[in-house]
Write a structure and sequence with these properties.
The protein is of the alpha/beta class. The chain is built from eight helices and eleven strands. Strands 4-3-5-2-1-6-10-11-9 form a nine-stranded mixed β-sheet, sandwiched between helices. It has a two-stranded antiparallel sheet with strand order 7-8.
Length: 244
């Protein structure tokens, strides 16, 4: 029997957007579960091993979310700053897991904290990527009221990414909630304008507008299914692709 050929990526450089909740344990209750982070690191390494330059943007919702704090009396500006710091905890956890796998990694943050991370400098980030290093962007955009989805779209635009890969626990975008509507249909491909007109919840409006303006495709897929990200990079029909 002939051996399966390794998949070849159609993308040279991507931004991978991970939610903070992806780092949580479903059983132990840990906000940052080392076993879960190790599995995420293995999948990021698989992307790098395909010859893809990969930057990662991580949320902080597993630790603190500014909008949730506001409902409990925390000033929104302060709450969002707390959420930005939470993203750095996640970024350092992923850095550690990647380096345990032998993957050279750098963390860059939108808020300076030089003792533990580099400040975000576009040219330096590009240099790291060109050298085959994984770059993890922390602290969102560095500004309150902007989500890490917007940060992912912004960084993708700044570094000239070929696509933004939004990692989720569902296998794409549906016409309706598939848990509530058994007739819900998954979109394999959809245009930016149709996604907007149908009010599909892909990312927040600012993030979506940035991707549309800069013609950055958004791949929405189940990151936690083995082999999915490699297949998506190879251009196979995995999840949903939002593009022109």
């Amino acid at each position: 029997m002939a051996k399966n050929r390794p998949l070849k990526s159609r993308y040279r450089r991507i931004v991978l957007k991970l939610s903070g909740e992806a780092f949580q344990s479903a059983t132990s209750g840990l906000s940052v579960d080392p076993d879960v982070v190790a599995e995420i690191a293995r999948r990021v390494k698989a992307v790098r091993d395909m010859g893809v330059q990969v930057a990662v943007v991580i949320g902080g919702g597993n630790i603190f979310r500014g909008t949730s704090g506001e409902t409990r009396g925390v000033d929104r500006n302060v709450g969002d700053q707390m959420g930005m710091l939470a993203t750095v905890i996640n970024a350092l956890a992923l850095l550690d897991a990647l380096e345990r796998l032998g993957v050279d990694t750098r963390v860059q943050t939108a808020i300076e904290m030089r003792q533990i991370a580099e400040p975000f400098i576009r040219r330096r980030a590009l240099r790291h990527l060109e050298k085959g290093r994984v770059v993890i962007f922390g602290c969102g955009t560095g500004n309150p009221y902007f989500t890490t989805d917007t940060a992912a779209a912004l960084r993708a635009s700044e570094i000239g990414a070929d696509a933004l890969f939004k990692a989720t626990k569902v296998d794409g975008i549906y016409t309706a909630d598939p848990l509530k509507d058994p007739g819900a249909r998954r979109y394999r491909r959809i245009s930016y304008l149709k996604a907007l007109s149908r009010q599909l919840k892909i990312m927040d409006a600012a993030a979506f507008a940035l991707c549309m303006e800069n013609k950055i495709p958004i791949a929405v897929f189940d990151f936690f299914k083995a082999g999915n990200i490699e297949r998506a990079l190879a251009g196979e029909s995995v999840g949903t692709l939002v593009s022109e």
